[in-house]
Every structure is written in C-alpha cells, then in structure tokens.
Amino acid sequence: MPIPRDFRVTALAGGVGAARFLRGLVRVIDPASLTVIVNTGDDDEFFGLSVSPDLDTITYTLAGAVDSSKGWGLPEETFRCLTALGRYYPETWFGLGDADLATHLFRTQQLREGKSLSAVTTAIAQTWGVRSTVLPMSNDPVRTIVHTEAGALPFQQYFVKGRSEGQVKQVELHGIDTAHAAPGVREAIQSAHLVILPPSNPIVSIGPILALPGVREAMRATSAPVVAISPLVAGKPIKGPADRLLGGLGIDVSVGGVAGLYRDFLDTFVIDTQDAAQQHQLEQLGLAVIVTDTIMSDMEKSTMLARVVVEHEHRKKWRVESGE
Ligand code: FO1
C-alpha cells in the first residue's frame, strides 16, 4: 500500500539511535512530511561555544553528511583546533572536529545576536539541505545532570569523559521547571498522522522532551497512533548507557520496563525478535506489538524497519477509515 505524500510523521529524538532510524524513515515517507523534535538536555558549552550534539547528529544524518562509523560528527574529521586548544585549556576530552566547529561557531554567534535556538536550528538544517523540519525541544536551556557516587555530572561529562561509569542514583533536568516547549512542538504532535519514538534512551533522550510542560499531555491527546521502537535488544542497548540509567533509577531493564514509561500514551511497541518472549506480556498491557529485527546496522536495515512501522500504522488507519 503506497504511503501518501502528505502522511505527516512526528518523531521525538535523541542522537545516534534515533538518527539511524530517521535515515531510513525519510526513504519511506516524503522527507518534507517529517518533523523531528530533538532533545537538547545533552547540550553544553565548550570553549565558549554552544554545542547541541543531538540536534547536530539528526541534522547531519538527515543531510546524509554524518560520519556513519561513529554516528555523530562529520566524516574524515581532523582535530587540529582541539589539539591547539589544549595549549590554553586543561581538558579537551570532548571531540570537536575542525569542520564540525563551523556549526558551533555559527550557532554561538547567532544565539549571541539574540536569535532563538529554533531559528538557528532551522538555518543550520536549511544550510545542509535538510527538507524535514528539525525542532529543538525548547528554546530555554534544560541541562541533564546525572548523579552518580562521583557526584553530579552534566550529561556529556558523565557520558563522554566518564564513559558512563559509576552507579546512577538520580537524573536531574536542570531548568525544566521554567522551560517551555519550543514553538511548533506540541502542534507537531497534535497534527501528525503518526507519532514515532525511535530507539532513543528513554531517560536522557526522550525523558527531557516528555518532561516539558504540555508535551506529555499532547502525546496523550493526539489522535495519531503513537509507536515506540525499543532501544533495548535482549535487555541491552545497542549503544549508550540506557541499561545503567534504567537500572540506577530502579526501572526494570527490559522492554516491559521501557513500555511502562510510555504506558499513558503508547499504542504500538516495536520489539526485537530476540525479545519475542515478552510479546504476550506487552499485549496484556493493552499494546499492539510488532516483533521484528530492530538492529539497524546499515541503511537497508534502517529503511526496512521504518517501512514495517509506517506500513503497519498506515494499514491500520486505512482499515479503520474504510470500515474493513
Ligand atoms: N561522543 C563521544 O562519545 N565522544 C565525543 O568526543 C563526542 C563529541 C561530539 C561532538 C559533537 C557532537 O555533535 C557529538 C559528539 N559526541 C561525542 C556524541 C554525543 O556525546 C552523544 O551522541 C549524545 O550527546 C548522546 O545522544
């Protein structure tokens, strides 16, 4: 069944895992019909520059420009500037490549001139020829702080410098109480034909977006089906510390544990064939369950997964509308 060009999809995204799914999705639907709401809790300042890793990962990926081996940054990067910065600064653990620095310089200068993060994100996406709409979750600073026995660490310090080590005790979203969802965020959820949560970390990638005022309510209220793809395969994330974060917060490290975090708005949960034994348990929560290969090791597999998700939901919508 062909997907109509005006089939509007909204995705809530973190970084690499979401990007791997979205690169396939824009081969299945019209890229111009996709809106991506991106986590900014991972943002930080390095050497006076405003860095938004998840926004850049999504933008570079949708532009076909990302370093596909790492899943973030630009290919064939050099790090001469970062090495030179080491003369002035004691720490250069965050890998800012020479070409990538242009994006951070542009973003920083535009923000300093008073532009909103939304406006700068649109300008960057357009520069890279991205046809989809890329929205930061908020124009207000929200910073994810991970509390471990080593203390309270801003996300990039926990993840990159600290290699996600240490027992997680708490995750704090600094600034969330006064932050607002960026313009277009709630509208994109409400007006979509399909809302997708790609396989992103439920605590530090999707969690901050859902914690913004009105976003969770929009997820519950939308008439669009909401589909999530499990970030866990056989109880482990493909990449990143989702298992340590879930476990540290006392949440079951399983597809059931993840589904529980979304239970108030989720319609369909996509799980890997390796977790097929848990299908029945998820169905008992009232969820439709798709069991398929979710490991997106190449573009073809990303496209296949996106096709399974979109066609399943589109077929369901068509059946309801035609009364079949
Ligand atoms: N990830 C790393 O593991 N090490 C790095 O040095 C690193 C640098 C970096 C620079 C720019 C950027 O946009 C992303 C970068 N990332 C790096 C990825 C980033 O830490 C994570 O992918 C996200 O924050 C988690 O979604």
Structure, explained:
- The protein has 324 residues and is of the alpha/beta class.
- The chain has 13 helices and 14 strands.
- The two termini are 15 Å apart.
- The protein binds ligand FO1.
- The site of ligand FO1 has 17 residues, from helix 2 and helix 6.
Q: First CA to last CA: what distance? A: 15 Å
Pattern of helices and strands: EHEEEHHHHEEEHEHEHHEEEHHEHEH
Major sheet attributes: 7 strands, parallel
CATH class bucket of the domain at 9-42 and 140-144 and 176-322: Alpha Beta
Number of helices: 13
DSSP summary, beta strand count: 14
Blueprint (SSEs and pairs):
Blueprint: E1 9-13, H1 16-25, E2 34-38, E3 44-46, E4 49-51, H2 53-62, H3 80-85, H4 98-112, H5 117-127, E5 133-136, E6 143-148, E7 151-154, H6 155-161, E8 168-174, H7 185-190, E9 194-197, H8 206-211, H9 215-221, E10 226-229, E11 232-233, E12 236-237, H10 242-248, H11 255-261, E13 268-272, H12 279-283, E14 288-292, H13 299-322
Parallel strand pairs: 1-2, 1-9, 2-5, 9-10, 10-13, 13-14
Antiparallel strand pairs: 3-4, 6-7, 6-8, 11-12
